[in-house]
Amino acid sequence: MLEKALTGSKKYWALLSLLGGIIVVGFFCYLKQLSFGLGITGMSRDVSWGLYIAQFTFLVGVAASAVMVVLPYYLHHYKLFGRITILGEFLAVASVTMCLSFIIADLGRPDRAFNVLLYPTPSSILFWDMVVLNGYLVLNIVIGWTVLAAERADVPPPKWVKPLIYLSIPWAVSIHTVTAFIYAGLPGRGFWLTAIMAPRFLASAFASGPALLILLGFIVRKFSKFDPGKEAFQTLAKIVTYAMLISIFFVLMELFTAFYSQIPEHMSHFQYLFFGLHGHTKLVPWMWSFVILAVGATFLLINPNTRKNEKTLALACVAVFVSLWIEKGLGLVVTGFIPSPLEEITEYTPTAPEVLITLGIWAIGFSILTVLYKIAVSIKEEVGS
Amino acid sequence: MYDTGKIITGLIVFLCLITFPLWYDAFTGKAATKPEPKIITKEKQCVEATPYMRDSHMKLLIQWRDRVVREKMYSYKGSDGKNYTMSLTKTCLNCHSNKQQFCDQCHNYVGVTPTCWNCHIIPEEKS
Amino acid sequence: MDNSKRTFLKVAGISLLGIGSKPLQKALAVNEEPKILPSPDALTGKRWAMIIDMKKCKEDCQDCLKACHQVHNVPDLGNPKDEVKWIWKEPYEKAFPGDETVYMQEYIDQTLKGSQFITLCNHCDNPPCVRVCPTKATWKREDGIVMMDYHRCIGCRFCMAGCPYGSRSLNWRDPRPFIKEINKEFPTRERGVVEKCNFCSERLAKGLIPACVEACKEKALVFGDLEDANSELRGLLRAHHTIRRKPQLGTMPQIYYIA
To answer: A268-302 b/e with 16+ CB inside 10 Å = b?
Structure first.
């Protein structure tokens, strides 16, 4: 099936070349980081995780969201999703690859990454995250590839793949739960020390992932003969709507607990996020953009007219994706360190090489996505014709 | 068969590349010279016999490293029955007191770069 | 899928499993006669701890900080972003946050406000950094010292997120050019690994007390075995009211302050 990725239109190659170019730039910056050290980034002694870990956290959500198409199709026999499960699974493959790349980019000693396997440490959540992420990657590659191959050969998928599909459903929940545990179990970080972290992660994942899937579906439909179907998009839109509402609800829960209890180590982080702390306001404009985008998107999604109109739906999906990227990919990780446990306020701004490495990894993800979608769509076209 | 020409050319280029070191040596006549490590030492006897040290010194050093750092063990009973402090810089390099003429000789020859010296400090070299 | 591809995948899979069984083989290996022994001169204790008497500590004195950083080749990078530190001074209200009500500062504890507390790794009895480390590069020794293995650390900085005392530093860049005077008896670190106070484990092995304790002319720092009822440390604990940093977090810090 790989041969399908080797032929394509000029636009296909142009896209891949563009992504390739970004990857090359990112790679050179990474070489620089390897020789200089992580000091090349904006991270500091006080804010010791930054853009890389934040992207990782956000993308785990996108990866987990594949379950939102797999579950209705395989558990509830919701036929409309049959055509797009492969898009969900391949999106998961690309996202998990980005997650793993971001972790490697964030390591001070990437040459020792295999120490995690050589000295397995079950008490560490990072160890479990490594296990579940790699497992999820393998599951989605195997399932996606096998089902697609069967579809091409016009035979039902082999029997052994069914249990794997069922396994992938709780597994998707596990990757984001374990990722939330990285944060939620640290005694000195009041911002993250909340039992709602995992549910909150999942809710925002089930909004941002399907929103991206809708947008990708629109793009696929525009540039190929494969149409996932209007109804499938509408069902996805409803999933995004509910997940977005729950997401906002969870954020409000956090705000209530922090501001009503007025315990400084819980409240000060939210003060920093939304109002700034002692004149430090770098994230404030971002967070209010999040609020505006999230509320705007919710209105567009709740209103049946704007949800059914594919133009406004696309707009809402962009808003959902961007707002949740701000909330999780920017605010959540960095703010845990501001103020520090010693009440020091050190702000964080990523440096140019850091941003370029980040873009490079996104480009790796999108190249994988492009190639996998090309294969999937070509086969769908072949079967359809 | 498709693209016979391309495949054969590719194979030839590949073969040339992987045999490059052989060609290089044959044409330039600059075969790498055999390493001749020099031991400038006060003692006659190492902690273990020379053949063992020659092929397993890295294992011994890693064992020493892990035992010292992780198990606070500091003393090693050598094959001569004497106790040695398990220390790369204080014990090993006390006898093998010139890193350039001892360690580097073979390491350069086989093309390995042990990372020890990124942190551990090379004692002043005696010639 | 043809037969050879399938066989290859099978072999590859089994080989991969083989790698995972290495620790098992190690555990089953039989130990030979002990060739490796502890140092005969080592100071031994059941539970090392430290008391810092802030009433004795002189405001403008830097002796203990300098001694530690000199002995351990701690670099001075000259900026808070890349800073590496093992022991340093922190104003009372930052070392003990949450204690800073207006009244406390105004009326009650004029002596404490702004006073510079000596802070270092607390060598917690229940250390979160150890719990989160994915490679056991940091672990608690049976005598209570929270150790770092710079040979194993992958620089993920999970421990830095886990430590509620800000006691850990990453080497954001090569530290060597920033060490003024290298102590040849102790290794430096390299970029990409986390470091922190080791309670002078290398000095204890030689029978010496920690460098900071030795350097303090005021005898404000006292190091000792918490489980030894006759130790000076226990005497001081009996005689004084002591406080610890953030004990409510359950980390059980083992640096006690007489404030």
So the answer is: bbbebbbebbeeeeebeeebeebbebbeebbebbe
